[in-house]
Amino acid sequence: MSAKLILDIGGCLFLLVFALQIFTTIKARGGLRGIRQVTRVSLRGVKALLLIGGVLALVSAICQPLLVDLFPPFPPLLIIGASLLALNAACLPPTFLFLGASQEGGFSLASDLQYAVTPLKIMHLLDSRQAGPIVGEHLHQFEYRVTHDWQRAVRALSGLTPVIIVDIRVLTPNVYREVVQLIEARLHNRVFLVVDAAHAPAAISRLCHQSGVRICVVTSELLQGALRGIGWTLITCHVGDIHRFIELRMLSIAAGGRHGRSEDKLCDWMMRNLNKGLTPDQIAAHVQTCPVCGPAMGSRRKQRSQSSGAKVDPEKFPTILVIGIDGPFNLRQILSMARRKNRELVVMGNRSPAFKDHELLLREASKFRSDPSLVLIFEKYPSKNDPLCLDPLVMVRRSFLLDVGGRLQAGTLGELAILMTMEAAKRNMKVSYV
Predict the structure, then answer these.
(1) Given 62, 123, 138, 142, which residue has the most CB atoms within 10 angstroms?
(2) pLDDT for residue 257 is more than 60
């Protein structure tokens, strides 16, 4: 194999990567709007040389046949492929923007996210020189740190990025200012706040409460699980709103999903198609032939057949309003029913096995009488026994639901449970799980 052929193959691979980056970015963002703004940020920062070099290399490859006497021959495919990748790095609008402190935790998370979202583009303004030689070299590829007026760069990039990740585990004044800036620009619905525990620092909680906004708070592990492989998923799937798609993946992971225990896993085909809607016959036909779903369903049937022998004292049983979720989830309608019916608890569910287990309902409901600080109990893994079940059993104290429900925006029962958990954490109230 000649050297020229090897270089041409390398050039073709560069062009393939370039095409993948463009294709997945268009699917994630719905287009390539924002090239001009990203180019301006690049020219003001560390990507200026890369941008200029990419343009010059592309021009030289195009003009090479005309200037053969001035420049030595070089495989044009390799030059074009490398220059287009350089231009992508400097000008392609990002799908993700990472903001955080230039410290060890931020460096590690940003580096892990870069691998997780490939071939989608993630940008950050961290100082990669402080990250050490190995991690720093990797981070430098996606660094858009500017020489002056970093707040202007954050405004420009956040305005055109559909998903903004803010690491607030180390809440420096600059990171806090970035969160304030995002809220003031009404971009909070694009943001994921990364925390160590299940709730945001007090300063951020107060800021969100005063501003009347809701921002999704996640742990780094949950975020990485939801983003892992998302770029390759976009090659074959249409996701619409990518922020909403990531939230749904998080809810799927929290509810068991594909990242649960090995005996509870479902195959990729089943996970992709459950949200689209499958009939029981389609599921049964797939389970009979699938080496992943077959054992998983057998394990779930065994769990379903087991029941607890615990008994409940009727005197400890609170009054309950039971709401079956049938059709599209309507939080406003649920709040209206809760206002009309004066009960201690509101219990919601649909296909959930726990919702159908009367003994379990009695046992869990009695906990609200014995523990006044308990405001919410919900089912963590509703899909274990019934793969069609996407909504968990939710048991919530009526007073708490009416207090926080008017400020929440939830599209599913599972999402409502997550949002109420976040509200309970802010108030130091207790949440339990089935």
Answers:
(1) 123
(2) no
Across 58-67, 210-219, 299-308, the highest mean pLDDT is recorded for: 210-219
Contacts of 48 (CB under 8 A, 6+ apart): 42
Q: Which of 127, 179, 159 is nearest to 37 (CA)?
A: 159
Q: How many CA atoms lie within 13 A of 224 on its CB side?
A: 14
Evaluate whether 352 touches 393 at the Cβ level (below 8 Å): yes
pLDDT at 326 over 60: yes
Q: What is the pLDDT of residue 275?
A: 46
Per-residue pLDDT tens over the stretch 98-125: 999 988 888 889 989 988 898 898 999 8
Structural tokens at position 160? 């055109």
321 token code pair: 């309003």
Radius of gyration of the chain (CA): 26
Q: Are strands 191-195 and 163-167 parallel, antiparallel or unpaired?
A: parallel
Going through 9-85 in order, the beta strands assigned E by DSSP cover none
At 99, the amino acid letter reads L
Spatial CA neighbour of 210 closest among 172, 183, 178: 183
Q: How many residues does the chain have?
A: 434
Q: Is 217 helix (H, G, I), strand (E, B) or coil?
A: strand
| 342 Cβ contact list (under 8 Å, min separation 6) | 398
**Token pair listed for 259:** 């990242």
pLDDT at 248: 73
pLDDT band (50, 70, 90) for residue 259: very low
> Cα 123–155–158 angle (5° rounding)?
45
Please tell me what DSSP assigns to residue 94: P
Please tell me what DSSP assigns to residue 262. G
DSSP string, 289-356: H-TTHHHHHHHHHHHHH--------GGGPPPEEEEE--SS--HHHHHHHHHHS--SEEEEESS-HHHH
pTM, rounded to two decimals? 0.58
Calpha distance 97→99 (Å, rounded)? 7
CA 194 to CA 100: how far, in whole Å?
9
Residues in CB range of 44: below 8 A, 6 or more apart: 146, 147, 148, 153
Q: How far apart are CA 50 and CA 48, in angstroms?
A: 5
Please spell the DSSP secondary structure of 173-204, one letter per residue: HHHHHHHHHHHHTT-GGGEEEEESSSS--HHH
